[in-house]
Amino acid sequence: MAALSARARALISRSALHGNLSALSARSGTPLILPVKAGAYGHGLEVTARLAAEHPGVWGFAVAVPREAQALAALELGRPILLLTPPTPDEVPVLADLGVRLPVASLAEAEALPPHARAHLKVDTGMNRLGARPEEAVSIGRRLHERGVLEGVYTHFATSDEPDLGFAHEQFRRFQGVLDRLPPVLAHASNGGGILSLGELPGMALARPGLASYGFAPAHLRGVAPLRPVMTLQARVTHVHTARAGETVSYGGLWTAPRDTRLATVGLGYADGYPRNATGKAQVLVQEERRAVVGRICMDQFMVDVTGLEVQTGDWIEVWGRQVTVSEVAAWGETVEYEVLTGLGERVERIGVA
């Protein structure tokens, strides 16, 4: 049976991804652990990991949950995989057998590791989410070293993407205090904000840029490194028709045609991750022109004013990319880029491109 085509597709640019990874590795002065959690921030786990594995600056990958680690290990990309959140006891031997690097934050977790496991000690230096406090971390790290399973030690910055870096510097001071009392390991601390704001950090072997790898930086850090959005989201026109002057469009009748208006219905909606709160504000790119999304955004589709354009059913329009940006879509939807990207649904096909 012939495969049916998707109504929407996300084009994942190898050149943009590799350019971002090169810039971030150069700024941090280290190889990178690329976070590919949440479907590679919505970009697609498999397509993104395969493209990134071709880059010499990628040491390995990081994921949030064990099933992501399992799926990534099945791709056999030959790069280490770091799990960032604690596994349950029954998951530990399965993950260790796959070679997944396991986070450890207590002596009990350290003792429970099988002898062939590889551990990264998580130090909570102020995020107060996961990890061992600095005063506990040294004894845990030493025990991991005694058992021959300690590979890395890491922490996570809470405010490195803020203009005031005082707390980030304090977190790094606390982290260095732990490292000074442990044998040499693969130490890593910087997320994307940390790389852009702090640059090279002494003693760090790796860095973990998340959203920055995919082309986004806080407003005050834009331009620090030459980052480009990796994804272009496109959707197909599924219907073209005319709304007559005075007729309303979509649920609630929020928009009324001021004149006879040619409309294109587009096969993407809030079930696919396009924010419903963007109603009345959103624009898309149609034949290199910005055009307004009119009426309430629906679960599976939205309507666009294409008056004066030769638009046909089956045409692709650009929902976001380099001209209509994810940052704009996030602002229209009253949210942030993280939520827009990671909310992109499974009905959207991910395709790697040059």
TrEMBL record:
One of its GO terms (molecular function) is pyridoxal phosphate binding. This is Alanine racemase. The gene is alr. Catalyzes the interconversion of L-alanine and D-alanine. May also act on other amino acids. The modification N6-(pyridoxal phosphate)lysine is found at K37. Its EC number is 5.1.1.1. It comes from Deinococcus koreensis. Its cofactor is pyridoxal 5'-phosphate. Pathway: Amino-acid biosynthesis; D-alanine biosynthesis; D-alanine from L-alanine: step 1/1. Substrate binds at R129, M299. The keyword Isomerase applies. GO terms for cellular component: cytosol. PANTHER family: ALANINE RACEMASE, ALANINE RACEMASE, CATABOLIC-RELATED.
